[in-house]
Amino acid sequence: MTRLLAVMAVIALAASAQAQDAPRNLAAQNAAVDLPLAAPDRAPDWADEFDTPGLPDPAKWAYDTAWNKQGWFNDEKQYYAAGRPQNARVEDGTLLITARHEALRDADDYGGQAYTSARLLTRGHAQWTHAFVEVRARLACGRGVWPAIWMLGADDRAGWPAQGEIDIMEHVGWDEGVVHGTIHTKAYNHVAGTQVGAQMRLADACTAFHTYQLDWTRERLLIGVDGRAHMRFDNDGKGDPATWPFDRPEFLILNVAVGGWGGQQGIDDDAFPSTMVVDYVRVWER
User: Fold this and answer.
1) Fewest C-beta in 10 Å: which of 187, 190, 204, 232?
2) Distance in angstroms between the alpha carbons of the first and the last residue of the chain
3) Residues labelled catalytic
4) CB burial class (10 A; 0-12, 13-18, 19+) of residue 201?
C-alpha cells in the first residue's frame, strides 16, 4: 500500500538521483507475466486459520494505530481502531476487517476521521525473509474503499521506500474487479515514477474468495492469484539494496483503507460498512 506522506517530497529528492539509473520501462520489461504458482507441498511454517471467535489472536496480530492523530498516508480518511470487534473480529472461521462510516470522537487519538477500520500486522510476532505467502480472501469493495494484503521491511531505520514494500494485493473500489501487485524500493517507487507492478482482472473479487499469493526467493518475486502469477520482479544481482532490499525480513499487513488511491473518484458513503473477509493466512519459509 503506497505511502504518499507530505515528507515523501523529501524522499523523492533523495530518490531521484537513484531513479535516474532505473529504467522507466522496467515494468513493461519485468512485471507482467503469466506463470504457474503453487504453494509448497507441506504444512505451512506459520498460519492463522481463524478458528477461534472473537478478536484476532494477539499472539499473531498487532494493530497499527500510529498515525490516527496526525492522519494517515495518501490522504486516507480512516481511523484505525484497536481491539474493536466492529472493525476486526473472527467469526465463522474467518477474519472480518470492516470499514465503517462513523466517527470515534471520544478516542484519545481521534484525528477527525469520518470512517473507522482496522490495520492488522504481524510485526513483533512473525517476520520472514524469502517465503511463500498465501491469503484467501473476499475483498471489501465500494467507491472509496481500498483493501490491501502486503508486506513491509521490518527494519525501518532506512525509511520508506528503502526498507522495501511488497504489495501482494491492492484493490481500489472505483476500479472494481482489478487487482494489483506492486513492489517499492529506493530505486523503484511511485514517488519517483519508477514503481514496478502489474494488474489482472478478477471480475468476482468482491463476491467470491480468491487465493492471493507471493512466491519470494533470493532470485525473484512472483505475485499472483489462484495459482497463476501475473507479476514478476527479478533480483538484478548487483547486491544493491536500492534495487533489491528483499534479502531482509518483512512482516505481513492486512487492512482496509478509505480514501487515498481508493478515493481518487470520491467516496460513496452508501458503500459502508464494507468488509474484507479472510479465510486463512499461510506462510511457508523458503
Assistant:
1) 204
2) 24
3) 165, 170
4) exposed
